Amino acid sequence: MELTDLLTFSAVARNGGITRAAEELNTVQSNVTQRVKALEAEMGVALFERHSRGMTLTGAGRRLLPYVQRMAALSREAMLAARDDGEPKGPLAIGSMETTAAVRLPALLAEFHRRFPKVTLTLRTATTADLVAGVLDGALDGAFVAGPIDHADLISAIAFREELVLVTARRFTSLAALRAGTAESGPTALVFRTGCTYRQRLEQMFSDFGWPSATRFELGTLDGMIGCVAAGMGVSLLPRAVVERSDQRKNVSVHALDASWSHVDTLFIQRKSAHQYSALTGFAACLTDADCTIAA
């Protein structure tokens, strides 16, 4: 088995399709398709079920995936450990939710770069579910995700504490006004794609409000989401800090929520068994440094 084929298989499993996997791997779709087919031919079994919405793992694929994740993590870790002479340098792959990357990380990343200029840091934004998978399979050295996270192979520390707020069009001055001014099925929920913790929480909230069948509309950027809220397309659940820094702040209403809905910890997660090489240790130290950490 070629390691590249296994890594391609893992990327397709993580992204649910060829297109997103090709984007992540910085290659063309035909190359991804060829490698997946070659691996399936070598295994003698189908690893994916193809359908109109993308690709999902077969039973054989699900059984193979944990081994591929461990192999990928060990391969990358072995290379980094061999090169690590105690000075922070070389590649460092960090993942983050879109909201955290937009508001909490710029000053931290700038300080880290100032301290460790020889480290080549890459930042990948994705949903919490995808980021957890990326850390587990070794594609990411660490990631900022929404808590709680309970996984035997991960360690976590609280990085930031966020207050989530419901964001609506300006005309809705209260939650009561929102309830009175929308259809019985509820407003459209403007969300990131499946796997986003904030989306899951908004869907739970809508269910409690009596709107379990409300329409979902997926967006890929924060600016687009807040802009659509301002235009009256729907509502969203976002960290207060994100909304307050938006250029659209004056065009939306922000509604405080009960603590059960509003409080969420952003965690920095790492694989428990990963080699603590110098670049990652330097990043973790910078995160916990009072001069680098951004107050929530």
What is the structure about, briefly put?
The protein has 296 residues and is an alpha/beta fold. It is 45% helix and 22% strand.
Share in helix: 40-55%
> CATH superfamily of the domain at 162-263, please?
Periplasmic binding protein-like II
Major β-sheet annotation: 7 strands, mixed
> Strand tally, please?
11
Distance between the termini: 47 Å
Model description:
The protein has 13 helices and eleven strands. With 296 residues, it is of the alpha/beta class. Among the domains are: 1-66, Winged helix-like DNA-binding domain superfamily/Winged helix DNA-binding domain (Arc Repressor Mutant, subunit A, Orthogonal Bundle); 162-263, 3-Layer(aba) Sandwich (D-Maltodextrin-Binding Protein, domain 2), CATH 3.40.190. The strands form three sheets. Strands 3, 4, 5, 6, 9, 10 and 11 form a seven-stranded mixed beta sheet that branches. Strands 1-2 form a two-stranded antiparallel ribbon. Helix 1 (3-15) packs across helix 2 (18-25) and helix 1 packs across helix 3 (29-43). The longest helix is centred in the N-terminal third of the chain and has 25 residues, at 59-83.
Write the layout of secondary structure elements.
Blueprint: H1 3-15, H2 18-25, H3 29-43, E1 48-51, E2 54-57, H4 59-83, E3 90-96, H5 98-103, H6 106-115, E4 119-125, H7 128-136, E5 142-146, E6 154-169, H8 175-180, E7 189-191, H9 197-208, E8 216-218, H10 222-230, E9 236-239, H11 240-244, E10 252-255, H12 259-262, E11 263-271, H13 278-288
Parallel strand pairs: 3-4, 3-5, 7-8
Antiparallel strand pairs: 1-2, 5-11, 6-9, 6-10, 6-11
